[in-house]
Batch of 4 targets.
Target 1
Amino acid sequence: MIPESHEAYSVRLYRATVFPTKWAHVCDLLRGNCCDTTVFRHMDKWWLFTSDRNDVLRLYGAPDVRGPWAEHPKSPLIVGNAHVARCAGRILQTDGRLIRFAQDCAPIYGNQVHAFEITSLSDTEYEERPATDGPILKASGTGWNARGMHQIDVQEIRKGEWIASVDGFGDPHTPVRADALAARKSEN
């Protein structure tokens, strides 16, 4: 597990000693102001995306999840674009494709989520392109996600059958009824 640990000024790796209630710190993967880090394995190598600001996306590679991590020669991949730089969940790997989810942090942090297909990833190359014409998640205007959506985790549970967990934020003064929340979840 790699929880958000930017306040500790590091990317911290933990392992379960008694799943899911007890965890032990294994090591720090990186030191620095790293936010919304996501790690994945592709082509016999570990890859790590992280942001040190809302408008910067960095990429690192390592032979083992514990490291040593080296910054990719094309990194930073994105500089000065808060609409697409910050990760919004782990990389989706499906049918040989890699999909990176990105928070749109302009004009506010995490107001919607975009999807990008990674078309080239190697020790020397990185390229991606939009996977959709617009955001895949956005604010609803009411309830638990009234103001924004900023994380998604997609899992294929059976061939062709998917489930997703999302994170949004709304007006803290507007209560959300449990039945309304359940109805919204079933629509997605």
Note: Confidence is low (pLDDT under 50) at residues 176-188.
Target 2
Amino acid sequence: MALTAGTRVGAYEIVAAIGAGGMGEVYRATDTKLNRPVAFKVLPASLASDRERVARLRREAEVLAALNDPHIAQIYGLEDSTEVTALVLELVEGPTLADRLAQGPMSVAEALPIAKQIAEALEAAHERGIVHRDLKPANIKVRPDGTVKVLDFGLAKVVEDEAVRPNSSQTATATMEGTQDGVILGTVAYMSPEQARGQLVDKRADVWAFGCVLFEMLSGRMAFSGQTISDTIAAVLEREPVWDRLPAATPKGIRRLLRRCLEKDPKQRLRDIGDARIELDEALAGSAKDDIDGQEPVGITRRAAITTLVGAALGTAATGAFAISRYRGAVPRSLTQFAFAVPEGSKALYPATSSSLQTTVGWGSSRGFRPLCGNWP
């Protein structure tokens, strides 16, 4: 069924085409019952009679119905008739992340809040046992108010037994630009090594794709790319990202997070996207452990403070030990005796047999001056 402006499908009236790809065509439409704009997603005409593709579209509806998160586009309904099978979705205004990246890399301050919201969306899906499997900038929208929405769960899979394996209808070919007919469970530049090999995948495939997206946001370049599909897959399987492309202002914690997300061995990769969200929270809060590379931290760091205190304590102990040793080993100096006359008419404090009072005093070694007899006035 051809959809043009003014076409009515049930309660929905088509307004204009928004975009098209191998997984579906999306139109802006009006819900005439509720008087609200919606996104109307249908299969391309060439696949409208493909039972497997129709079944996949219905599975996408079920997946979205199981999710309720502010960073995932909502589903309003499934229009299923003899004429067309369509998803009725939340219409998300604003450019895609791919549109924004076409203008160049993002600053750390711009990228991290968006990355955090993407992580929150994936975390909500993973908690329900759902793996997206096609996360990429073109499937992420940023609304004018800064809210992020993750779109297109057409390749999403409810994980059973902790992993899913692609079937033959999904592994015929791969494309460079987007998810099209026969893509290998995602887009080659963002698919994990296990996806590229057609192996079992789980939520760690989304962690890899998240790392690819975050790297591209900060650097303005894909983490893995090539002139051909084969070159790109080879880069995914064999090469490391060019880490020097990250801006100097990238916090150390975010650099560490990217390396953990982009571990080729899934056993060594970050296991839970929730951990990435926590790392992003700490970076946004300006945690001391995320000091910017190339800059001296302001004030005294915790390590420096501890070092100073330990040094002071050791110095005090050494000084005390030295003083004690000096005191114990000191040899008393000789006593000095002298006599002085008491003036006539003065009241003597010491008994004396003559006008001259013989008084003996001593100079103690390390304790200072100390009288050796009598009550010193």
Note: The first helix runs from residue 51 to 65.
Target 3
Amino acid sequence: MHSELINRKELGNIRQLKQKPDGIDFYSNDYLGLGKNHQFRAKLHELLREYPDAIMGSTGSRLISGNSKIKMEVEEVVAGIHKTAKALIFPNGYAANLALFSCILKKGDVIILDEKIHRSIYDGCRLSLATRWKFKHNELDHLAELLKKASCRTTGNVFIAVESLYSMDGDIAPIREISELAALYDAKLIIDEAHSLGVFGIDFIQTLDLKQPVFARVLSYGKAMGLYGASILGSTTLIDYLVNFSAPFIYSTSMSDFSFLALKESYSFLEEQPQLVSELQNVIQNFKVIYNGNNRINPGPIQPLYFTNLLELNQTVKRLSAHGINCYGVSYPAVNIRYPCIRITLHSFNTLNEIQLLTTLL
């Protein structure tokens, strides 16, 4: 362990825990500002006064003492909002992906992943006996080639897994086209919506009006929703299967009732405050107009700035920090070793002056 830590330090990509600094936020996932929204916080305080006992721990797995009427009602609300049969709530997106992929993939199955999909999905797949392939990021021809190969080689199920909005590159997957390919080759599509949830409204996938059903969707509440937790959405059979066979669900203590109530409140708050999405889009547009140093501006809040070497990246992060701007430098193994980047994230609360300061310094 010591040797590996020394090696990482020499490479310049050692990770260390630090206190959250003061300054202008261009690095958190609080895209709509709910994490610091005083109105939202006040609603949660009111909720706590109404349900004071809900803040305590659940005392066990949901299959033993950790379930409640509140939890089941909130899951019904989430399923209704996203127009799916059932929802199952987990403590975080990592746990949800681990639970889903480790459970449903069997020996003889093939799972085809976008090469830039989140680490939690890779880890879930590693716990299964399925064959795992990667297709080039957002490249439909390569995906089609692998689907054709899988249809000839396996008698098991074929799955495709993508993110709707990618956490590091910030670009959007061609979901419609991928859905059509899945239907053509009888594959099951799974979409991780951690970074798109709330950013384009309550339900980005519904706006696409897909002709084919999605096998499973994973939503994470630790980004635009301002809280923590995650949902797996799918058929009654899928959710019942997870309850019966998914180890991360069966053997984990449930979140508190208050955590579930807070998630419900977050949905209601965003429905009452649609201008937050418009404000975020205005910030993205302002960034696009002012900043000409990047050839591509993403439609979402994540705007990566790529570097050729770590030294230059780390120096830039330090210089931005010296001017009161918090950005995060991302390097291997979180991203490809050839493409370290500053992951700039934009928020509904970033002002024009803040954007001008950031772009001027860059």
Note: The chain has two domains: 2-30+274-361, 54-271.
Target 4
Amino acid sequence: MNIQENEIFLTLARTLSITKTAEILHLAQSTVSHRLKALENDIGFILVERKRGQKQIRLTQKGQEFISIAHRWNTLIEETHSLKSASPQLSLSIASVDSLNTTVLLPLYQKLINHTPKCRLKILTKTSPEIYELVEKREIDIGFVLREINSSNIIIEPILSEQMVVLRTVGDKNYKTVVHPSELDPLYEVFFNWSPTYLIWHNRWWEPLLSRQLEVDTIYLIIAAMLQDQRHWAVVPKSILRSFAETKIFVISELSDPPPNRVCYKILHRYPHSRDAQKEELINQYLNAIL
């Protein structure tokens, strides 16, 4: 068993498609099939059920059981390379959704930048499904998401539950400390789809086809829209105000009938590499300090 054969099997176990596996790994389909057959010959049993004319494949029972072995084999290879490495510097890669990167996690990143000894830090902004895929493929160490997606290779841990509030500019004449959803004019809403449960709550109060005059997908677009017109408002997690408190431009109102809290999750690969425990310990140390 070599590194490429192992990677092909793990990707195939995730996609259940030789075509998709070939696309992801930038290989010819014939190469994928040939390497998979070589792996089966090497280990002495069949991993995949092949049926002519069917696009998707199925793992055999032994193929299912072999997934954890393949992950452990990758871990051993990683540990071997770590022993050969001349640099002891810790390298940490993190992916998060935009609304966490620009608000909740900024203090975490500042602490990591100032950490001693210095560590190499890579930060990505992705959607929740993309982050799950990156963690599963081990292209990042830790992910921060807003959705639970079941995966046998992913550990999901809730780290924060945030109250949702109404964000307004200081000059808004309709400002009240507590507001009922029916008092908010949907024509001036800056809509952000925070989660499926949030959307259900939102559609209970405002007709989907009539509201959402302005829909955005980043925090800074919410801010930009509200600065253009003081009548604009948005339902946001409470942490957003903390990020812009120094500007003294925005205020929040609590909702008398609020949506469900926004829950943030940390995700990790179930089969850690040699230095993953050290990375998680460092992240947890600073998360505990800021949350």
Note: Residues 3-84 form a domain with the Arc Repressor Mutant, subunit A fold (CATH 1.10.10.10).
